[in-house]
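Can't paste images in this forum, so I'm doing it all in text. The chain is below; anyone willing to post the predicted structure tokens underneath?
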Amino acid sequence: MGKDRISVGIIGFGTVGSGTARILLENRDVLSRRSGFDIALKRIADKDIARDRGLKVPDGVLTAKAEDVLNDPGIDIVVELVGGIHPAKDFILGAIRNRKHVVTANKALLATEGNEIFGEAEKKGVAVGFEASVAGGIPIIKVLREGLVANNITAIYGIINGTSNYILTKMTEEKVEFSEALSEAQRLGYAEADPTFDVEGVDSAHKLTILSSLAYGIPLSFNEVYKEGITNITPRDIEFAAELGYKVKLLAIAKEAGGEIEMRVHPTMIPGEYLISKVDGVFNAIYVEGDAVGSTLYYGRGAGDMPTGSAVVADIMDIGRSIFSGGAVRPVGFPVVGANRRIRKIEDVESMYYFRFSAMDQPGVLSRIAGILGGNNISIASVIQKGRRIGGSVPLVVLTHRAKEKDVLRSVREIDNLPVVSDKTMFIRVEAKEE
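Text version of the structure:
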């Protein structure tokens, strides 16, 4: 074609692999005009090369052997789209050791094994692109690495799991139980047969690990992220939240607080007027607050073949530009690791809280509960007590001012032991500005 060319090999021809290949093949001329170089898709490796993906692949491109990609001296960039930990990690390390640049969408692998992978890439002087690992087509990695590089990031709030967001949206709009909303998500293909990673917050925690490392210069620390899923959320809690002016979302939260970093994923009540609370269905959104820029919000599709493929191709083009610019390719794109940034334990986190107590319909119950809360440094902001009888007891809903989690947990233990309380207390953390 009379211009510079880079050659790409893809390992994994599933949903995202197919989307990536489609963009590289069908938009090849557009990509070439925009970048100034040609991107050639040389190889695609997958165990199953017979299944029709609805995409015409040139002869000789498909192979059943990953080694045909890893060991091809003509391939400049290896794209890993297998998912999971093994053999994906082996493929990536194999590519790096062969001094090939890598692009991956594998958030679970980066969150848990990324420190080793990026360390190896540093040694070999190759790039690892990972834009597609968080929030699909939303370019949030580029935002943190480049667009907001002048800022100290004070907070990140993310709806970064479409499955859970779809389930909570359905529960909110149709007042159905979690199990029914999950079944519908599975029927529509939004949830896997085993939805554990999605509904228990693990997938969101993988992504938050990556965002936190970029924002705060800390090592990838997946095991230190607090994780709590949405399986215990009920339509009743969603309804009470609405009466108080809030919506329930599964939020991934990273904050800098008192020199420490908070990293937590859990159901969260947020005010209904906040833009992020209006993000429904399978869509993702990430709110980032910087000391210079203020509040910013990024919204779009967080999964799917073409949105995620779009992010993969963006990384390929970035690496290609570095190769042909005459300068050194940025090895990893992570900032210098910060010194001694302690991760705050969940029991030391401060938040507002929603409580739903199952209390006997008797005089003095509220005062007893309020006494325990007050004795543990928790003050009440508002109360809903409507006398709706549920199995001999009534729901008593309390919204608190800011309190420490360890005080909340101690209060709940004491209150649940009261003879006038008939069931375990439900509590949800609340993220809002106190009035």
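The radius of gyration is 24 Å. The chain has a mean pLDDT of 93.
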